[in-house]
Amino acid sequence: MSKKRAIFTIVTCAIAVQLLVAVLIIGLNSENFAFLRNSARNEMEPLGNDYVLEFDPAEDPVEELSIDWQAGPVQVVASKGNFIRITEACGQELSDEEHMKVLVDDGKLDIGWDHNRFRFLAFPFFASAEKSLVVELPESVAQALTEVEVSNVSGDMEVGGIACEEADFSSVSGNIFLADIQCTEFCGGSTTSGDIISQDLTTDVLNFSTTSGALNFQEAAVSEGDFNTVSGELYFQGRADTFNHSTISGDSHAELSACPEELDMSSVSGQLALVLPASASFRAEHSSVSGEFECEFSGKDGAYGTGKPQGGFSFSTTSGDILITAS
Q: Is 4 among the domain residues?
């Protein structure tokens, strides 16, 4: 490439970048980007390094909740009060731009990390110091939501006392703790390295995945349970009409209160363990290269138990063992 052509290319790129920045700046101040602005009706009240936003859902109804957080713990709880209370805490003073962004629009409560309009262009290491978030919802609001979506990058997440149609919870490295969650249609989520721990969760479809984090569900009641892990372990205790878990090296343990209609468990090296009521009857297909298969139920020609088979099961591993026991 000639020297003149190289200079021309550099100048052209520089002009293009300036034009792009200009378009973004103009656009961010236009109606098309109004959703990026903070239109909270109440000003934040400073309490040391805590900032609190409180409003009456009777005046600003909330049916949906969306939280997009960065570095820091997030807590969403049902409260006995009549107001929605949002508390942001940080170990240092924050500028106006660094404070949380809260928007209530058409029944949706949207809580964001800060007011940075160029957050989508920023790298994680440019983020502010860790901040915690606590969202307190009156029981009348917490028990009548349509959609709930909560995500963060790091920091533990705790959500409890929520009833909705659909819910999604996700984190990169934070643990997720769920308690008393009722979803009529769907509940799901994911982490990379964080654990997901749930107590008393009811939904139609349950779908969770991790890379190395563990999945632990106790007292769960679902129509369809789907789980995916790479090295993370799964423990599920409760009822599932259909149950599916796929993993590479993580162990899988399902303790079911009733015989499911369908069940599919697969692993490369992880152990697959299933506990069923002693009265269960089912058909099971299993395959493994070097893993062992053990079943406490009497069986013949792929049918196990004493009654008419109630469910169809499939197990497959490469080296992991397969174990079926009676409770």
A: yes
* Residue 100 near residue 41, CB atoms below 8 Å: no
Q: How far is it, in rounded angstroms, from Cα 27 to Cα 71?
A: 28
Residue 30 CA to residue 130 CA, distance in Å, equals: 31
- List CB contacts of 59: < 8 A, sequence separation 6 or more: none
Range(s) of the domain holding residue 7: 1-34
Name every residue whose Cβ is closer than 8 Å to that of residue 325 and which is 6 or more positions away in sequence. Answer: 273, 274, 275, 276, 296
pLDDT (tens digit per residue) in 200-218: 999 999 999 999 999 999 9
Tracing tokens 């859902």 back to the chain, one arrives at: 57
Do 251 and 227 contact (CB within 8 A), yes or no? no
Token output for 28: 């961010």
3-state SS, residue 139: helix
Spatial separation of the C-alpha atoms in residues 88 and 100, rounded to whole Å: 7
Residue 320 falls inside a structural domain: no
Query: Could you identify the residue written with the tokens 């063992």?
Result: 321
pLDDT tens for 104-154 read: 999 999 999 998 755 544 444 445 578 999 999 999 999 999 999 999 999
CB 297 within 8 A of CB 304: yes
What 3-state class would DSSP assign to 84? strand
What's the angle, vertex CA 169, arms to CA 173 and CA 72, rounded to 5?
A: 45
